[in-house]
Amino acid sequence: MQSYKNVYTADEYKRLEELKDAALEQNGIFKQQRDKAIGDLARHAQTIVDIQNEKLVLLQQIERTIDEKKVRLPWDVANALKALTDAKYSTFGIMHHGNKPEYAEDHHDELRIIQTFCNTTTPDDQPSNGDLIILALVNGYTVELEPRDKVKQLIEKWYAVPGDVTDAELYDLSDGIIDLLQKTS
Predict the structure, then answer these.
(1) How many helices and strands in the chain, by DSSP H and E?
(2) Could you tell me if 56 and 48 are in contact, meaning their C-beta atoms sit under 8 angstroms apart?
(3) What is the residue extent of each domain of the chain?
(4) Which pLDDT belongs to residue 48?
(5) Beta-carbon neighbour count of residue 115 at 10 Å?
(6) 22-26: long-range contacts at Cβ-Cβ below 8 A with a sequence spacing of 24 or more?
(7) Phi and psi (nearest 5°) for 24?
(8) Per-position DSSP letters for 135-147, written without gaps between them
């Protein structure tokens, strides 16, 4: 076996030791910086998750607020509004021509429905129908079912599974029909 001679002088060896110590020190610094970067990244990731959760909650609140502001309109008025908005009538155009349908170029029937609805009086504690039209155009609207459609829904519910109707459901159907008749009479 061959013995190895010292290839480095004492000064060179000392210099290598210094370089090794400097490299180990630099490696420690890099590890600290890496650990700090990982910690920062984890904090920022959590911040992003928190912001996304907050955004979701805000969007749900906005959606609920929009739904709460929607106006209920009779079926014929809702269909007239849809036809007019589909025909690119603006809110101003609907209200202006709804006041005088004969001056409009088209959609006279729909505009007369709007005019009749706006001219119908409402109880003092309710907004005017003209205000309801504006609110519907701004906030959106839902269609109020006609009484015959409400009764139809009750009957469809009753006939959904023949033979599976309980007395309680029959009473519900009866009460529903009676309530509708009393409200529309």
Answers:
(1) 7, 2
(2) no
(3) 13-69, 70-144, 147-184
(4) 94
(5) 19
(6) none
(7) -65, -40
(8) HHHHH-EEEEPPH
